[in-house]
Amino acid sequence: xxxxxxxxxxxxxxxxxxxxxxxxxxxxxxxxxxxxxxxxxxxxxxxxxxxxxxxxxxxxxxxxxxxxxxxxxxxxxxxxxxxxxxxxxxxxxxxxxxxxxxxxxxxxxxxxxxxxxxxxxxxxxxxxxxxxxxxxxxxxxxxxxxxxxxxxxxxxxxxxxxxxxxxxxxxxxxxxxx
Length: 178
Fold this sequence. Notes:
By secondary structure, the protein is mainly beta. The chain contains 1 helix and 13 strands, in the order αβββββββββββββ.
């Protein structure tokens, strides 16, 4: 009778070890962060109301903080619309970096004729002190539900023969996650 008892014990022991190793291997790897990524433009770049002064070309810039600077031959008006940087909201999970790429120059046109040149940049991620240029990389916050804010400014080159009116255009920024 003791021989039968040893035989049953020896069958139960390997079965226990098989189940133990199976459970350990299932829980051995941590889950990877989600690769979900979304970008939404929430505010357009606007240089506000201004006028050329003097006889030459004008240069007007807007920073990532919305501050306007008339570099040459430009009068800054406080009339609406007000100046503002472009704002993008980025959602990307922890452990990920984003590289931004964009064409640095784009034309702005007026219905009925007229062209101004817009140089895009710099850009700035909220929470960091340095400006980002074309091709730069930045990291996002470490919460999948947190929104990282990217602000984009620009410089407007205004020819001396520019006609008054509303000039419009668009620019694309490519966001690549790493």
